[in-house]
Recover the amino acids of this structure.
């Protein structure tokens, strides 16, 4: 029957991993809450499972070799943990690998300094705090159930259909200049390749930052995307829109050295330049 992956939260990264694994002969199942979403998954060769159906969940995770959880936590914690822990116990499943997608927001603001996986957590946003709590809950569950749970801390993710090009074309791009402000980012395909590398080398309680090699100011990304499109970038501004205030409240550089050393992983897109060039050439 081949290997099987189960994805809780079939979003941007989950769909990317599904395509990569299906291309290598894996079977993939994923959660979908509505009948329409389940039909769309089935049409794409993915087994669709209603996360609110505990019997269907248990049946689907029973033979899963790898489980990825991408759904964000809410006030009550991680919905993936609430649904998957009972399903795993009920079906006597014993996956080789469980991956939980978290955020580099758990580190909070570091004034432009570097963070790695040993840096203390100091989330300043509600979302970052909830992710830190979900990480803890998954590690505790992994230890208690004897499961190999690995955490991936991700920065802003971009890729086809979700890049500076799309914001420029939609007229929503802002070139915000905040002196000294930088952030790390990751191309969706690099996140997927990191997950595949970890699946091949499961490590219980492992934690990895997955990002490119060059933290950079946000306005530099917009400028380069505009240059590639042959258009003028939007004017510089220091005014931060309300929707972006949480993002600009954090200023840090994220190290990916552990993922390189332990997983043998390297980002294909080492900076936003290579990533944007690849997106444009494929469009």
């Amino acid at each position: 029957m081949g290997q099987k992956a189960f994805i809780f939260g079939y979003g941007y990264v989950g769909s990317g991993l599904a395509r990569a694994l299906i291309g290598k002969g894996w079977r993939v199942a994923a959660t979908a809450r509505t009948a329409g979403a389940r039909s769309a998954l089935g049409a794409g060769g993915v087994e669709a499972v209603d996360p609110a159906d505990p019997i269907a969940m248990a049946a689907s995770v029973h033979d899963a070799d790898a489980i990825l959880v991408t759904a964000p936590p809410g006030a009550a914690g991680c919905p993936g943990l609430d649904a998957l822990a009972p399903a795993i116990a009920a079906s006597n499943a014993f996956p080789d690998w469980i991956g939980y997608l978290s955020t580099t927001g758990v580190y909070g603001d570091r004034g432009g300094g570097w963070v790695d996986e040993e840096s203390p957590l100091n989330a300043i946003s509600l979302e970052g705090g909830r992710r830190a709590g979900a990480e803890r809950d998954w590690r505790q569950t992994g230890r208690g159930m004897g499961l190999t749970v690995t955490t991936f801390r991700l920065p802003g993710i971009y890729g086809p259909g979700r890049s500076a090009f799309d914001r420029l074309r939609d007229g929503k791009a802002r070139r915000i200049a905040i002196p000294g402000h930088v952030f790390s980012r990751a191309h969706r395909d690099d996140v997927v390749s990191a997950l595949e590398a970890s699946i091949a080398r499961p490590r219980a309680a492992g934690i990895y930052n997955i990002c490119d090699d060059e933290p950079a100011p946000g306005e530099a990304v917009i400028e380069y995307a505009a240059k590639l499109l042959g258009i003028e970038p939007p004017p510089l501004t220091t005014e931060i829109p309300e929707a972006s205030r949480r993002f600009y409240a954090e200023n840090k550089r994220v190290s990916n050295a552990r993922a390189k050393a332990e997983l043998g992983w390297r980002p294909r897109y080492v900076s936003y330049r290579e990533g944007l060039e690849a997106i444009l050439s494929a469009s």
Residues 126-145 form the longest helix (20 residues).
